[in-house]
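--- STAGE predict ---
source: upstream dedup step, 1 unique chain passed
mode: sequence only
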Amino acid sequence: MARHERTRGKLVSQSPARHVALLFRAQWVLIATALLACAPAEPPPTVTLEGLLHEMTDLRHLARFPNPPYTHRLASSTDPGAHSPSDPNSWFKNEDMGHYVRKETRNGRTEHVLLDAAGPGAVMRVWSANPKGTLRIYIDGAETPTFEANMEKLLSGQVAPFAYPFAYVAARGRNLYFPLPYRERCKITMDADDAFYQVNYRTYPPLTDVVSFSAEALERLAPAIKETAAKIRAPDSLVTGQRDLRFTHFKQKTRIDGPAAVVELSLAPENPTPERLRTWILVVRADGQETVRVPLGDFFGSGPGAIPYESMMASVSEKGVFTVRWPMPFQRQLEIEIEGGDPAHDFKGKVAYAPWHWNERSLYFHASWRHDDPRPSWPPRDWTVVSISGRGVYAGTLLEISNSSKAWWGEGDEKIWVDDEDFPSHFGTGTEDYFGYAWSTPVPFARPYHSQTLAEGPGGYGSFSMNRWHVLDPIPFTRRLIFDQEIWHWSKTASLSLAAVAFFYADLDATTNAEAPRPGEAVLQLAPPLPKKTVRGALEAERMETQTSDGRAEPQRMVRYLGGYWSEDTQLHWHGAKPGATLDLRFAADVPGAYRVRANLTKGRGYGVAHLAVGADTAGAIVDLGSPSIRNLDDVDLGVHELSATDNRLRVEIRGPSRQSPEAGTDFGIDLIWLEPVP
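--- STAGE serialize ---
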């Protein structure tokens, strides 16, 4: 099957061989002049697995333009129907599963090609929401795989030597951070279908010397792999192990003379409430130029509030110590200041710095902050995290979301445009996928290179905070970089506010679209409280006296379910009953008389077909409660009945499983009944 390659907003059918050739040519013919202009005077080293492993923990490499230079790209299962931002009908297409470079038949099996890249290059990251089958990696045109393994086990850290912290599960996302260099070509396939996947990879200039990945290299470098894993697990060691390390106590304004590089900044702010962490502004000036102006809490990779977590580039301790490890080189002087605090009481901390040899590849540390006030969730749109003009390396992202709805907010893809691209070289498959998790899972986690530090919930409601550090997969740019985050919400009636920090290295004259907040201007935007469902005169089913002939009836909290709202966030859930079983609910009417009786029920997976009847009524109502998901079924009319003031009965009989449910079951759920007097 031919690949459909996006070129200038069009889909062009290509054969596999032509795809490789054009990819190679497109990457280098168009950018060769720029790369040569940025090329260092020092000769480029040979690219080896050992050298790339060193990059996983030597954070200083981020602050120098890479040598040898390279382009960084993303191969993914993103919907191929997205053509151009000028065509909104296609640009926001969202069918991101099961799209590949092509399919191949090999030894009687079908292999789906995730990546087919001409060398020299290196794969840096593999992610999937649903890995399955066998993953095979073919290096330098080999007919047999250089490496193969069960894909789920590999990306879950169950295949040696790719255990944690190289591979692992994070909130249902499977991740592999491990460099795989290749001299001529790399092809990655899987023999199962319908996958969500991402592969981050580099491409070096044509004559770059690369030692390709091999099983022999894995065995030979076992000690180095073990040492790298130990360093990743202990990010403090990345700083304390440096030579000629010096420290100074932090004051509200701290100056350090150069040439040097700050390698760690730790602060213990007094009473770090969410509001104060947004009010205080951290400012960094390098060699007289402001390169950072960011709310203090956001700068440390999380928020709102002091949320304990640990990652490679940033952490917040249980005791409220905020730490970052971004190298910040400078030639003459670096100044760090916190605006908006009380110099006598608000801040204690320290700054660690070390010598730095400044050369033509050295870059300054930058961090830019932007926000978006609450806006309607629909239609889908692109929001620019950062737009940078200049030479540099993109190194990390913080994204904070405040969502008014329980519905998921993160279907949107990251779209990163580098230099003069006609189409983004990074086009993702979903917001949570970029941050290394999957399936809109609202579970906090912290891993070395990415975290979701806050997921308020229930579901997609409330405040979310996530980060990703491009330590192994930084994105170089020679003229410009634009990071657009697609905003694509399940709900068309929600509101959403955003804040983001882009962390990058660039020359001192680089410019961005960053905001420049002053103390008190970066207002914390929190979601409004979730709606509370109230029905006047309702009788809560979970409070009624009940009797069952089979199974169990008990209150069930419903706040986590996205398909609606339940009165007092609770229903009466009857489960485990066989067909023919009955549930009696006893209720009272304030005044005896004629009433129309209505019920609010629940539909869902595993729910059955039920007959509901009030008192001696035998006709009643038959209701099919099967559904693919849990949701409300309100205002079910049970007819007009003469009710007593003290003792009335609603009888529910299970008739059997529902054909509307993906799973056969006989569950029954009732939120409330309400009585409408009939004149």
